[in-house]
Amino acid sequence: xxxxxxxxxxxxxxxxxxxxxxxxxxxxxxxxxxxxxxxxxxxxxxxxxxxxxxxxxxxxxxxxxxxxxxxxxxxxxxxxxxxxxxxxxxxxxxxxxxxxxxxxxxxxxxxxxxxxxxxxxxxxxxxxxxxxxxxxxxxxxxxxxxxxxxxxxxxxxxxxxxxxxxxxxxxxxxxxxxxxxxxxxxxxxxxxxxxxxxxxxxxxxxxxxxxxxxxxxxxxxxxxxxxxxxxxxxxxxxxxxxxxxxxxxxxxxxxxxxxxxxx
Length: 263
Known about the structure:
Layout: E1 2-7, H1 16-28, E2 35-37, H2 52-55, H3 62-74, E3 77-86, E4 92-99, E5 105-110, H4 121-124, E6 133-135, E7 140-143, H5 152-160, E8 165-169, H6 177-191, E9 194-198, E10 203-204, E11 207-208, E12 214-216, E13 222-225, E14 231-236, H7 240-248
Parallel strand pairs: 1-2, 2-3, 7-8, 8-9
Antiparallel strand pairs: 1-14, 3-4, 4-5, 6-7, 9-12, 10-11, 12-13
Helix pairs in contact: 1-3
């Protein structure tokens, strides 16, 4: 299984509309991949709080339209990162969209843990409340977003729901890059699952981004890691490795607290 992580640079000089067109073309270039992943809030920038309201869009808005067509043209499963969603009956949400190779929307995930404490995303956006998994032909994805990475109970819940590949789009700041790498490896090791963590590059709202998108296998080994700039990170995955790892080192079966052992 081939996965491509598109570490998009969010440049404030580039309009969201222009970036959608550029990113759609990048997705089409990944036609040999099985799964393509984009970063968190790449149309506007994860820290561009002042632009959230102006750039908010419905689920079936311009990003949905552009990414659905790009997924269909490339024939790939596409985790289209996330958008600022305007719920017509509620607040804004940080919402991820997943598309099938036919361009059909396969899943929607609203970010559960909002970053900012008493400002930014934490006060501007509503919180999701549902764990979301997506069945692919060879594996099952578990969906999380950026700050979610700090909350292991979410990932254990996804594992219990059958996820073998944990996908984390992010707009992670450079000043906490060491946490990004450490937490991605920890989530892989403790759940004996692949972690695909796709960050953004560049600087937006005066916040330098970490970049360094990373793919970690179920043993915690780093299979690939990007640099700080815009980059396409492509890696071959073995979906059967998850089951082999859990069979060879069955730590998940020894759980005494929490939910039932994973499937």
